[in-house]
Write a structure and sequence with these properties.
There is one protein chain. The chain has 304 residues and is of the alpha/beta class. Helices cover 40% and strands 13% of the residues. The chain has an eight-stranded mixed beta sheet, with helices on both faces. The radius of gyration is 18 Å and the shape is globular. It binds adenosine-5'-diphosphate and magnesium ion.
Length: 304
Amino acid sequence: MDFIQSAIEKARRERQLRGGAAQPDQSVLLEGDAPLPPPRRTGDAAQATRRAADPIGERDALWAGLPELHLRREDLERQRVVALGGGSEAATFDIMRTKLLQQMRSNKWRRVAITSPTAACGKTTLALNLAFSLARQRDIYSMLVELDLRRPSISKVLGLREARQFAKVLEGNAAPEEHLLRHGRNLLIGPSAHRTADPAELLQAVETGRMMDAVETRFAPDVMVFDMPPMLVSDDTLAFLDQIDCVLLVAAAGSSTMAEVTRCAEDLAARCNFLGVVLNKCRYLDGDDAYGYGYGPGSYGPGY
Ligand SMILES: Nc1ncnc2c1ncn2[C@@H]1O[C@H](COP(=O)(O)OP(=O)(O)O)[C@@H](O)[C@H]1O
Ligand SMILES: [Mg+2]
């Protein structure tokens, strides 16, 4: 754990020196250090500046030049991605989106990570539903990035025929334009079709943070959603936390134990802005396939 802690501290310092968003425990971690430059311009301020300098919609033009996804609602619904077209099925995710946007706006956060204790809790399903729900908010430009590079699945769920590998962009081996896809006007998706050789090294590399910053600066999304690896399988997520502003933990009713959820929630709360636990796979609505997402802001327990 000493290694992880020192890697996180190093990455956190790097990010702040680059102008990254402030984290709540920075004064403790940086005690005794030289004064830092002002934090990265985030949220409203950055958007206002960009829009003033960009009256003709440079961002719209840049985004419009990316390959467009043509998704079929029925195909996605079979994979439990129900937020593409709105309606009652999407309501849970729309409520979650609205809560999330309020928290992110008021704190000037832009990057949210979605993780879980173990695999198959529903991270990718939630990340896609949240992304499509965000996309129906016409004034919000969002980007979804696949970072569960040991078990990538966005490509599969979306039924993509052409392999895109956003991990190559993070490795510095490709331009983002080659691996980003666009849904509608205001959602970009960076899938990685194949497993990556060294996911831990990639997620922990300081250079990866720089690449992510460069992508953010170029495409200027209002919200970035990261589909992360599970926390109890590797230290990839913990090591990457410094790159994000806030995090949601997905637990699966019936398979995640209280001990796992508690351990992950405590780790997350100690290291970043922890938004809460989403309890997935609750079968209390209309039978076995029903969704059961609860979203407990900043807390967790049997009620969520
Ligand atoms: N609410 C839910 N109810 C039932 N099955 C679900 C639910 N959410 C996700 N699943 C299914 O669980 C499996 C794992 O989900 P996935 O989102 O890929 O998990 P992760 O990304 O955490 O590994 C998938 O087959 C998915 O369709
Ligand atoms: Mg997944």
